[in-house]
Amino acid sequence: MDDPSTDFLYPLQAPLPKRRRANNGARSPSRYSSPDELAAHSNIEPPTYHRRTSSKNLSRPAAETPRRSYDGSPREDSPDELDHTIHTFYRHSPTRSEISQLTPLQAPASPATSLPPATPLPPTSQEARFLPYKPKMVLKGHSKGVAAVRFSPKGDMIASCSADATIRIWETSTGDHLHTLEGHLAGISTLAWSPDNRVLASGSDDKSIRLWDAVAGKQYPRQLLGHNNYIYSIAFSPKGNMIVSGSYDEAVFLWDVRTARVMRSLPAHSDPVGGVDFIRDGTLIVSCAGDGLIRIWDTATGQCLRTLVHEDNAPVSSVRFAPNGRFVLAWTLDSCVRLWNYHEGRCMKTYQGHQNAKFSLSGAFGVYGDEEGEVPLGEKKAFAVSGSETGEIVWWDVVSKAVLQREMAHEGCVLGVDTWGKEGVALAVSCGLDRTVRIWERVEGEPENEFVKDGENGAAEENGISVDGEQMDAVNGDGG
Q1: Is 185 exposed, middle or buried (0-12, 13-18, 19+ CB in 10 A)?
Q2: Inter-residue contact 113 to 102 (CB < 8 Å)
Q3: In this structure, are residues 328 and 322 in contact, taking their beta carbons and an 8 Å threshold?
Q4: Tens digit of pLDDT for each residue in 194-219?
């Protein structure tokens, strides 16, 4: 079987947006005390769901509503049956005939419509070696916590959004601050890049989605208006002609980018929607919410094809399709990240080792083994990565669930992590409550000194000493 190419890991669709505004390190009130946190309206006692918090909400008094508590880690008998390797994980993309096997359901799915299991490859005689990610740059400029960060599809730019109601665009290779995009009237929770690497979409507490020319640093005149509450998550379709959005108003909207109008409204959840994403061919949408449900939707008809729910029923704060389109990765507020086979309605893997009980975190997929000597016989393996409320970033092997790396990254909660890689270059970027964006690079041996870039004045610091841009290029070569 052929090795997976980077096209399967990084398809031509914008990196998936997610989340949360930060409250700048301030202690968050109860979830019902601020409408800027992901809340639940069901009859069960609500979980502690500290969503992004803009400054206007910090002064509101705490509510009397009791909080839902969790009794620790998930049960030991959770299904855990991922019996294949990275080849099937990244190479297989469901066909329309497979998609047609999904029947409209509004209840938790039954394995009755399961697909044939993937054929496992023979095990290798050696263990894969994971080269750790090392800090490369620290980007400063936001005045409040950074809610989300995304690589552009080509990897040449990084976009970050914050509770300070601004978006900043950075050059990946040098860390130079390119643009500050202003226009939103409240904090920004989510970002998405268009597949052509030029348009950036943002969702805000001002209930609007705005489109920006990321190259010119200008806003397009039309806004996408229709949600009646805060917008938590957005994603571009692979062709760039549609945007899906999830909101505190419990709805999922499908937008026509050209006309800036709602094409379809999905009656998605009974709680605020925390995450949305397109599958790589655009035929399916996934959504998740504080009601503990993950739902798969047919893009063309708006039908709900699957409803996934774990036995612990923890609130689901973020979700994204695997690059091959066959699996869904979901973040839940019981300190777990779960991998689902949505065709069979089964939880395949549960990744633990981070802390996530309050904030809505997000992460990404990646591969290792594309560096010489990293994995024997040219084999490639997959990893999942997530931030943690402890300030760490954690990498897991997708199949074995082993923690590949644990790195103290930020002061306070790490709200978002994204990855990008091509032609031997493997990068990660993270953001958090400490108002910084940090770039990580996978290297062998000791890394070069970490640089601090100030987005306000463009200066870099190496070990506390200011270095101008010309000197920095001399130290870093071409910036890679």
Answers
A1: exposed
A2: yes
A3: yes
A4: 999 999 999 999 999 999 999 999 99
